[in-house]
Design goal:
Radius of gyration: 22 Å
Number of helices: 2
CATH topology: Umud Fragment, subunit A
CATH architecture: Ribbon
Distance between the termini: 68 Å
Low-confidence stretches: none
């Protein structure tokens, strides 16, 4: 009998390193690329419903830019909020008594609102002028949303945006890209 003797320990070591590599890649993807988030509450209805599972793109925050009407995820205390972006850095956003939204004194088409907004909050009067790293966000279900109109949430800083919603995973009958 000739040939090399196989070391049983090296096979176990290789398998362990393989498992560690797979775990590291999975953690890296979840930390830096995509993540699953569960919608809590009714503030984004009818676009997103309570308990929907959505997939967020975390990489866009690092290499892309946030656009008006993107749906973003950000922390507010211990909770993750999901809202739609209306005001971009440097803009003035104002909401009048009838619920119309103005960006730099021009009314915008608010095609995502579920109903007419009753409370302008801090965006009433002269509105809110955003800093160069801030966004103004609103829930689609305006009258059932805690968003940038309140002091509790306020303007969302660029560095606090965790990701952009790209797809709904569940319920299965609504699976697909989110507008």
């Amino acid at each position: 009998m000739s040939g090399r003797r196989r070391n049983k320990g090296s096979g176990a070591l290789s398998f362990s390193l393989y498992i560690l590599l797979v775990i590291a890649i999975a953690v890296g993807i979840r930390s830096f690329v995509i993540e699953r988030v569960v919608v809590v509450g009714e503030s984004m209805e009818p676009t997103l419903d309570d308990k929907d599972n959505v997939l967020i793109d975390k990489l866009f925050c690092k290499i892309g830019e946030v656009n008006r009407y993107d749906i973003v995820v950000f922390p507010a205390g211990e909770t993750l909020l999901i809202k739609r972006v209306y005001g971009l850095p440097g803009e003035n956003i104002r909401i009048d008594d009838t619920g119309l939204i103005y960006i730099n004194d021009e009314v915008i088409d608010d095609k995502y609102a579920y109903e007419t907004m009753k409370d302008a909050g801090r965006a009433g009067g002269y509105g809110v002028t955003l800093a160069e790293d801030e966004y103004f966000v609103l829930g689609d279900n305006r009258n059932n949303s805690i968003d940038s109109r309140t002091l509790d949430v306020g303007s969302v800083r660029d560095k606090n945006i965790r990701g952009r919603v790209i797809m709904r995973l569940t319920p299965l009958n609504k699976m697909g890209k989110v507008k």
